[in-house]
Structures are given as structure tokens and as C-alpha cells.
Amino acid sequence: MPATSHDPSDDVWAVVVAAGSGQRFGGAKQFADLAGERILDRSVAACRSVCGGVVVVLSADVLGTPDAEVPGADAVVAGGATRSESVRRGLAAVPASAELVLVHDAARPLATPAVCARVVDALRAGATAVVPAVPVTDTVRTVAGEVLDRSQLRAVQTPQGFRRAALEAAHATEADATDDAGLMERLGEQVAMVDGDPDNLKITGPSDLAVAGALLALRDRSAAGATGAGD
Ligand code: CTP
Ligand code: MG
To answer: What are the backbone dihedrals phi and psi of residue 104, each rounded to the nearest 5 degrees, phi first?
Structure first.
């Protein structure tokens, strides 16, 4: 039986970028504990739900230390000075058999298998680049004072999905971007959107860790309610 996107599939690999220094957090947030599991390990597990393999990108100075032991990682490689450079280095370690690649920020430990599956489904349906996105809840103004029409705006998350060849071509330009889909769009590729998850927050500052812990507790409580467990 052919694999569906909901089974881990060998033609899809993930690059989980975790080589940042966490300046705004005040340290290497990817190794921080979130409800008994490291942020990085949670992000890798989310990708594993749909991917045949996962490449983890870490800063060179943690390679060979216990921090670099990552359950579920097939390869651990050294990153670069920018996120884009880290993605490039991770991509270089993805086997040629993987035609589809997810790029995921280790800093988003609450990504769900459902979001990952939506991204893979859109790639399998023919998209070249796919981003999970959510409506913007704040009113947004430009610094010049223009209030933007919120209904036309979306906040973009990871994992983002790509046809590997197109992502490699985008990264061959050595350009730098906070977001790989943005890089591809600058080169004229269409970017498809699928529903993200409002709870798929990016751990940026210390308070985000507390919010993520509360969201996980809610998620566990509703899962226990659904199975009738815990009563
Ligand atoms: N990242 C990376 N290599 C870099 C910079 C960032 O792999 N040179 C990764 C981070 O580890 C993170 C993701 O890219 O998982 C998104 O980056 P961000 O949230 O900005 O994390 P940091 O760069 O670590 O944080 P800060 O910008 O506050 O220093
Ligand atoms: Mg950063």
C-alpha cells in the first residue's frame, strides 16, 4: 500500500535548525526543558511523525557534547552564522532520495503532527513551497502609520515544506532570509498556504516558555478527556 503523508515516508526528510544562540531568550533555548522534554526533542518528534528522516543542525561548539544527543535524529551537523546558512548546511546532509524537505525551527516545539501532515499533503498535491499560516489577531500598523487590513494578513509558521530541488536552487543564491518560503518567493516561486495552528508558537523570549507549558497542559488535559483517561 502506498504511504500516505500521515505515515513517516522516506521521500520526505526534515531539517530542524537549532544552531541559534537565543539572544532574546537569554541562552540556548533549544535545550531548555518544556514539561519534561527538551524544546529541540519535541520539535524533532513533531517532524518524525511525517518524515522518514530528520537532520538536526546545531552550533559547532555543542557537537560531541551531551546536548548534541538528539532522540530521533538521523544526522546532526554544524550550522552557520545565520539561519539561512544553517538551513543550507542541513540541506546538504539530506539524502538524495528525499524529494520533499520540511524546514522547521527547533524553537517551535508545539508543532503538531496535523500541521506537519497538512504541509506534506500540499506538497504531494503539487505545491513547490508551502507555509502553515494563521490569522493575525493584533491590529497591525506600519511604522509610517498606516493601519493594515488584518483580514488580508497571515502570520507564517514552520515547518515549511519544499520540493527539494527548488529549495536548493533558492539557497544556491547564498541569500539570507528569516524564512525559506520568503527566499523562494523573491525568486518568483509561488508559495501555498495551509492552516497553521495558533498554539504553534515560536519560543522567543523567556515568557514564551511559560505560555508553551500552559498550552501543553491544556492539550494533555483535552487528550485525557477524549480518551476518558485520568478520571
Ligand atoms: N538558527 C540556526 N542558526 C542560526 C540562527 C538561528 O539554526 N545561525 C535557528 C534557531 O536555533 C531557531 C530558528 O533558527 O530554532 C529560529 O531562530 P530564532 O528564533 O531567531 O532563534 P535564535 O537565533 O537562537 O534567537 P535570537 O534571534 O533571539 O538570538
Ligand atoms: Mg535569531
So the answer is: -130, 135
